What does this fold into?
Amino acid sequence: MTVSDIVGEAMDIHKLYRDKKERYEKILGLLRRVGLNSEHANRYPHEFSGGQRQRVGIARALAVDPEFIVCDEPVSALDVSIQAQVINMFEELQKDLGLTYLFIAHDLSVVNHISDRIGVMYLGHLVEVADAEELIFHSVHPYTVSLISAVPIADPVLARKSERKILKGDEPSPLNPPSGCTFRTRCPYAKKRCAEAAPELREVSPGHFCACYHL
Ligand code: SF4
It folds into this structure.
């Protein structure tokens, strides 16, 4: 499909235009919004770089005037300089269009940069949720603490002072997760109780939730 048809497909399904002219104008408007132009409309995805293809995907998501967008690893396949461009674009679109994102990513620096609120998952379970700053500076779940300690620090003096919390073992298969708390096979604080039933998320400070018996 051409970029024009990719971006226009959801508009076709939801009948979001009166005639072909309006459809084409809307598509061009969406391409401009994500930093592409009318020349790109009739090209095919293989003619674009990874960053441009992400822009096409974002234009396609915007085609139905959403309020909420699920962004599943939107920048993980891009190199760092392109990541920064795409993330800046996400932020500008959010401001201009009043969007809410559910942003799924593995790179904690990216997550911290873009998020108002962060949820940490382990083996498909939410183990900790808090506002971004609270979670980064006051994390309490042993898995989150270990994740945050693994983020590289640019300042060599601070890096030498920081303590890396390395987890033992490998992540179990999600097809055959451990009983009780799924983190217990790698947790330094695991007790008998942790194998018996999964801990529920509970509020440990205002707006900060954690699923762990150790607290
Ligand atoms: S519930 Fe137990 S095993 Fe799970 S994170 Fe807390 S202390 Fe560790």
